[in-house]
Amino acid sequence: MSENKIRYNNENSPFIRGFACNHVSILIVCRGPIRKEAMDVFDSLGVLLSEKDSVTYAQTLAPELRQITDQSRVHRIPDYTGANREERLIRIGDIIQICKTNQYTHIFAGYGFMAEDAEFVETIEKAGLGFVGPAARVHHGLGAKDQAKKLARRVGVSVTPGLDNITSVTFLEKANHSLDEMLKLATESKVIVDRSEIEKLNSLEEQAERILELGFQSGVGLISTEELQSQAKKEVAKILEKNEGRRIRLKYIGGGGGKGQRIVTAADQVPDMVLEVLAESKALGPADNKNFLIEMNIENTRHNEVQLIGNGKWAIALGGRDCSIQMYEQKLVELSITDELYASEAERMRKDGKESWAKSVDSDRAMLREMEEQAERLAESVGLNSASTFECIVSGHSFYFMEVNTRIQVEHRVTEMVYGLRFRNPDNSNEFFDVESLVEAMVLCAVHGEKLPKPERYLRNKAGGEIRLNAMNDALQPSAGGVIEYWSNPVEHEIRDDQGISIRNPGTGAFIHYHLAGAYDSNIALIVSYGESRNQNLERLANLLRSTELRGTDLATNRGFHTGLIFFLLGLDGMARPDTKFAVPYLAAAGCLASESNLVDIEYSWKKYLKSATQKWGLDAGAVIGQKMTLICRPIEQLLKNPHLLVGWLGYHRSKAYTIVEGQVKWQKNPLLLLKDLYQYLHLEWREAPPLQKIWEHDWQLLQKGLEFYTDLLSRLDSSYANDYAKLDQSIRSGNLPTITGDLLAEVQSAHAGWQAGLELLQLPIFVGLRSELLDIHLDDSLNVVFPEKFLKTENHKAWIRNLAPPPVASADTIVAPTGGMIYFRETPNHDSYVEQGSHFEAGSPIFIIEVMKMFNKIQAEFSGTIVEKFITDDGVVVKKGQPIFKVKPDEEIIVETIEEKEAKRKSYTEQLMNSFLT
Fold first, then answer.
1. Closest CA to 414 of 524, 529, 310
2. Helices (H) and strands (E) in the chain, counts
3. Which end of the chain is more exposed for a tag (fewer CB within 10 A), N or C?
4. DSSP string over 839-872
5. What distance in Å separates the CA atoms of residue 169 and residue 161, rounded to the nearest whole number?
6. Fold assignment, 303-578
7. What is the dihedral angle through the alpha carbons of 492, 497, 499, 500, rounded to the nearest 10 degrees?
8. pLDDT tens across 414-427, in order?
9. Cβ–Cβ under 8 Å, residues 408 and 442
């Protein structure tokens, strides 16, 4: 740990020197951004490399290894976790042996599955090695979701209602609730059980749990998957009978990152969902613990979590994070929530006269304090000795404990942006050292443990935030296979954890191409920033996303989604409270907007406008206005072609640049300034770049000339005109400008009319927003996001969201792959294929599955028909987007719209929009 050697070893203070870590050698057994971060912190770069990270393409999957010159520090194994428990145990043995052979003292597992594997940590401890993370006893107490819930209830933590012991319940049912029968079943399976020890336990439930545990330790499962499925179905039926209309969440006890959980609405769905939960959690082996939680799904919730750090004696909470914006149970945006932030934001709202919003923030502040107190209480009850996260679901201003992630989290940087740890000498309060890295704090806890005095947290910034840049298309579907060919360097206020992708060739300084192969998840990088308010933090994140240059071949990322989203939230208020369901109706709204914006023909609109202007002002005026065509049309066309950026632009400028009064646009800002801002928003501002990536020189010169006119005009008027465009516009048109009269006034009126001519087309995207009802999205009195009803209807979601990433064009008798990935024709290896040659299928029925970056996408038929031919017959084959899968005979003739019909529809739609504002 090079920084630590300087900071600790060379200090004059014996107290600080006592925390040196230069005697530590750490093996890193994880991947992704956290591995690169750990390598930057650790001095000894012992890195374990899975074959999935190896150079299997022309571009490596592990770009962070570029900075390692000593390849003896890289150790290759087939896979970190193995496909089943037997392989996992072999892999753990391999890792232990690597440590002994290479004299590593500690192991760091980042935030992968191994970081929460109690068996893995226990094996490390028994081998005499240190683990940079929570001890095995902590994993046993908090890592398994069922055990954590039981402990939480005992120490007075708020929990969600439900069942946390389905395996014990199943075993008891199988044994007719008899200890004798349970012992008999164990004996028949050759599981050794000491009856006298079992009888000391307080209840049949505890006895069943212990016997099952002994079975796992012996490599034997005492209940089958089928028995578990059947019992779970019965238990869910009981819950639903008492709670009609509610949904139930099934969640594996060791799951994480949104994996290993499903939501059901009916008992009949349970058996299949149980199988999916266990398969996704790699828990289908006979000796795997198959326990999962059956919980009431609390609707309209937010996802909050508290960062914890402890040394075994003390535990301290470091504020919270709001992770509510998520898709497929995967977090997309994480924002800090702290006492200091809530206090300052409530004060801002009261100054702005928004008392109801301020009261909502006050309530969240009180809730956070209680959440932190409960988190510390739970952590201290098990002697937490490293970093962990206390996760909650929030309904209104109440919270329920969900689980503890006994590892560092992907989003830990958000906490690092707002708080640091200050360790003071108990004998001399003037002696202290600060730690700003949670990974570094974990090393200190692992190496020095209870010697560490309890730190105090100090404020670094009031707000921190992170967005997850993923390989996804605009509909947020995973998209593997692209190549990153260029990525601009990080800029001020940007912390980019990109696995080392941005590391340049040390010899040439050139960007090294990187292949998004999708061996793991879809995450490419974490973009982190900070600020003195939530709005400043979001502004920085939005501008980082807007201005970064990321290019490649077949490259799809969710950067556009994030850019539009952050700007849209800024237009509402930075403290908006989106819930965990927010992403889907938001995407539906963006898709609905796309269905409207795709119908705008900007070239036709300009021709229509120019014709109208020429008739109104004459040929000479028309010729002058015609010079502005590309200046005005080019950015508007680009905006209309990108629905996510259009969402952000409309939302951000609502009430700032324009308002809607009786169905008409009223400008709050000079449209010429808005046009300038649009160029910047699209990252087309004047700069050193190829012409395709910036405003064209002729247009830039024209724009500058117009802006100079208004700058000169405003310099002659009092300051009230500078921030009131409506007043300026009205005064010019009416000829009522103080100090400007006569010929000069006439020139000003003529110039103003000339510079504004054509800018009416900026209303096109606004009217598109009105028609789609996107502009009806607003915040209620509690800062909750309110959508128009149509965006909440699930039957609308699929069609609208598909507009964001339209499937490849196919002929009427062919079904093609909507995305690249690995194709499967059946639910599991034990199921029959969905369809075969000659099969009839109905619209909406599943016909195949495509796996992309560990996400399984069930593809449903768009229409009814019969399979004439299967072009691919085997499961597990890699397909490309647009590749034919089936030849089919539709039940009804599919009529494909002609190009002429499409053009006529666009002109008609554009004509309607133009009539809304063209007089």
1. 529
2. 32, 37
3. C
4. -EE-TT-EEEEEEETTEEEEEE-SS-EEEEEES-
5. 16
6. D-amino Acid Aminotransferase; Chain A, domain 1 (3.30.470)
7. 20
8. 999 999 999 999 99
9. yes
